[in-house]
Sequence to fold (407 residues):
Amino acid sequence: MIISQLTSGQLEEKLAGSGLFLNVGPFIFQIQTTIDDLAEGLRLLYGEFPIASRTDFADFHIRFRRTRRLRRRFCSYVSVEVDGHEPAAPVPLEQVYAVFEGCLNWCIYAHAYQYLIIHAAAIERGGRAAILPAPPGSGKSTLCAALVSRGWRLLTDELTLIATDGGKIIPIARPISLKNDSVDIIKNFAPDAIFGPISPNTVKGTIAHMRPPPESVRRVGEYCPATWLIVPSYQAGANTKARPMSKAAGFMRVAESAVNYMTLGQLGFDLVSNLIDETVCYGFEFSDLHETVNWFDELTLSREAISIRPAASNG
Amino acid sequence: MRARIWRTFPLSRKAFDEESVIFNRASGSTHLINPVADKILSVLEQRPSSAQEISEQVSAEIKLDPDEEIIQRVELVLETLDRLGLVEPLPQ
Fold:
């Protein structure tokens, strides 16, 4: 069963009762709450995601509750509890949806060390994936949203999981987090895109999440090899410009962007080495999304990623 | 004063074209290094050596005489590698 098969009432009932067992890629989250905005966000953005059984093992047990803070008597807050602990102080209720997505991120990057976790978006077309590692403010999510609205498969917006066995990307296809001006930019670029509740006044500004394409969610079990490593950098007014990046520089970029590279030690080094062996690396400046999508589409027509493989593999 | 003898630590190496990435298995740190530093580390992986011995080995491979300038350059690279925790001088 998927979430969109539940009525709003049934979804709220599950969330208020024993919890919604949300299946996101390789994870199961048990989510409990009576907060309407969160239920609405789940209904809007997670409609295609499967519901796991109550008898399945849940990796994380998360509860969101209304609360109040002593000095802010007229402002409602929301507290978050993960596996019986509160990992952060309560935040204003109006930010509940951003907190929910941030909490799922935290659960993954702080615990899922069975994978190499790279702070990066990843997209796929024609069986080949591009990893987009970049710091906040680089336009990574805007670029990701633009590309998936033009037919690229969303693998992930925020955390790219690399399997330690085989080195493929494990999709999670969660909603894409957009901030401030990026929200309207994508609304103009992709008028059919569906957005969840808006979270104003966060430390990152106003945040809204875009629903992942249903096809991307349905194909979440299809792992994908990385073919390109593309480091995006949004520059207002800049022409679209890609420049080749050395593999050694690409390696360092991935290692710096990986949450648990140091923790994995030799395994992390081997995983990044293998990943870079298989990828072509670029630095990518952009501002115009139409030009950018064209550049990415042309990339899929190139055969350069095949030419770097050993000749022996051709038979 | 006797010349310092340098040693390195257990390293993993990934060579890409003209650059290499080195993983120090003792500290967990990773470094992007140029071919000169890479060559010096590979000499030290065989055995602890002085800057002069490293210069002699490298020069022999490229068929040059190890002059004072090469030795000084190797010393400088060794000091940089020392700051990065990739080599250390043996106690005199």
